[in-house]
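User: Reviewer 2 asked us to show a designed sequence for the structure in our supplementary figure. I'm pasting the structure tokens here. Could you produce the per-position amino acids so we can include them in the response letter?
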């Protein structure tokens, strides 16, 4: 029997791992395997401005190193928004054989930089690690048509799960809930099942 996955769960820029959203998703992920959350230095120190990229990446890499010491199966770098982007940088820097045991899950990847609109695709094109994007159709930071163009140029195996009516935090609009006849818990359960299949290596 395969060992359960070990999740390294990173937050978005605006809220730490203690936020309600992160804790709810931690509980969901714990039904699949062990979960370790991380916070970046600026969060631990109560600052609002994110650390420089090098600091974010170093912190995330330290968490990955700890996960590798503790995990008996694959390690999944999963993150919300900024946490997913930094996880991609960490995975892109990983070398075999360590990289062979890695998977990436991006919950609302910020393909467009807030404010400038700059395309953050370089790290995705550099990846070799299998990656799952979970994106809402109402997410202004990741228009699906832009993501489709990037995915077509990526060398890493990549999958996409679209949350119809979901925003940057995957929250459904009232219209989307009515249209699909589901509630937010149903949608989140669907996302969790997609993650389970992706991590297990099956079709998403």
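Assistant: Here is a per-position design you can include in the supplement:
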């Amino acid at each position: 029997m395969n060992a359960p996955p070990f999740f390294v769960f990173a937050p978005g820029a605006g809220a730490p791992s203690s936020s309600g959203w992160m804790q709810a998703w931690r509980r969901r992920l714990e039904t699949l395997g062990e979960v370790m959350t991380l916070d970046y230095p600026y969060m631990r120190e109560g600052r609002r401005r994110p650390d420089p990229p090098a600091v974010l990446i170093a912190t995330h890499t330290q968490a990955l190193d700890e996960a590798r010491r503790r995990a008996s199966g694959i390690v999944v770098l999963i993150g919300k928004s900024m946490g997913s982007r930094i996880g991609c940088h960490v995975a892109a820097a990983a070398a075999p054989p360590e990289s062979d045991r890695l998977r990436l899950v991006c919950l609302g990847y910020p393909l467009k930089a807030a404010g400038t609109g700059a395309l953050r695709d370089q790290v995705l094109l550099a990846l070799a690690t299998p990656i799952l994007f979970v994106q809402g159709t109402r997410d202004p930071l990741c228009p699906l048509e832009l993501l489709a163009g990037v995915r077509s140029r990526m060398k890493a195996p990549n999958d996409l799960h679209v949350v119809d009516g979901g925003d940057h935090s995957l929250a459904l609009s009232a219209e989307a809930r009515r249209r699909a006849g589901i509630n937010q818990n149903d949608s989140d359960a669907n996302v969790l099942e997609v993650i389970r299949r992706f991590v297990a290596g099956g079709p998403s």
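For the response letter, you might also mention the following. Residues 198 and 204 are 6 Å apart (CA to CA). The chain has eight helices and six strands.
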